[in-house]
Each structure stands twice: as C-alpha cells, then as structure tokens.
Design goal:
The protein has 185 residues and is an alpha+beta fold. It contains 4 helices and 4 strands, in the order E-H-E-H-H-E-H-E. Strands 2-3-1-4 form a 4-stranded antiparallel β-sheet, covered by helices on one side.
C-alpha cells in the first residue's frame, strides 16, 4: 500500500536526519511511542540504546542452525566419502589395518567440518542480512550519503500507519532534524 506522488512513482517512506545520536534515539523513542513499527535506522556505528525500539530480526536463530547443518554435512559427508572409497570402492589393506580405519579418517573430516561450518554460517548471514544489497530506495535521498560519516537517519516506511510527513514533522519538530525528506521507491 504505497502512496503515489505526482509522477506516479510510489513513496518508500519519510526520513529525518540528525546531527547527533541522542537526538536520533529520542526520535526513535517518540516514533515508537506513537505506534510506528516499520522503522529503519542508519547510523555510522551501532547504538545499543535502540535495542528494544526497532523491529525484531526476521530470522533471529538462522545462523547458528546453518552452522550446525554445515558441520553435519561437511563432517558426515567427508566420513561417508572416505568410508565408501576405502571400504567399498577400492579396498586396500595397509599394514594389516582394517579397511575402515576410523582414526585415519578423522583429520580430513575435522577440516571439512570446520570449512563447511564457516561457509554455511557466512552464507546464512548474507541471506538473513539481505546482502549484497545493490539497491535500496534510501540511495535516492541526498542526506543518506552522510549516514556513513556523521549523520544519523531514521526512516519510517510508507507501509506504517504513522508514515505521514505532517505527523513526522509534528513528532520530531523540537528535536530539530536538519532534513526531513520523502524517499521515493
């Protein structure tokens, strides 16, 4: 349910830019108190004060489970491959040891377990964080360039009931944002 502007292009939301972190935290508190839930915050560094004010993560426990799955797949797959090749496909008795000499299989299985854990965890982290994100509507706003340097941005998406420029200006007027802009889609 996006609002259309004069050009027929939708509005992604409204953004307010601040010069300091306390003003941003107060702005997010006010927006949260007014009922806004579709809030995005863009800052040069993490702000622990925003912990309970922002929406919860979409998939909070995906990365540990993906790492576990990677470890099971890597270790189990390597052990299965070594067992198949040493016992079933090409059995060779070396020094009187049994074909399935499990102590000889452990180093390679350990290495593959660690490799798969790291690979699955990184891949899950990228998917959960929706990275690499080559496009975001915020890139159209000029003030967004400052978020990596010295600006603190709060964005209320248009799918939130509190997303009106007048309401945003009323809530944040005494905090004096240096910019309040519409972010097109």
């Amino acid at each position: 349910m996006s609002r259309a502007d004069a050009s027929g292009q939708g509005t992604y939301g409204w953004m307010a830019a601040f010069h300091d972190a306390p003003a941003l935290v107060e702005a997010v508190r006010r927006l949260h108190g007014a009922g806004a839930r579709a809030i995005e915050v863009h800052t040069p560094f993490a702000l622990p004060e925003l912990e309970g004010l922002l929406p919860p993560p979409r998939w909070p426990r995906v990365v540990p489970w993906a790492a576990l799955l990677g470890g099971v797949c890597g270790g189990g797959g390597t052990l299965a491959l070594q067992y198949y090749s040493a016992v079933i496909d090409y059995p060779i008795r070396v020094g009187g040891r049994p074909y399935a000499s499990w102590p000889a299989f452990i180093p390679a299985a350990l290495e593959m377990t660690l490799l798969f854990i790291a690979g699955f965890a990184v891949l899950a982290m990228l998917i959960v964080n929706r990275l690499p994100r080559l496009y975001h509507p915020l890139f159209h706003a000029r003030a967004a360039e400052l978020a990596t340097q010295d600006a603190y941005l709060v964005l209320v998406r248009s799918d939130d009931r509190c997303c009106e420029r007048a309401l945003l200006n009323d809530l944040l007027s005494d905090l004096a944002p240096f910019a309040t802009v519409e972010v097109p889609r």
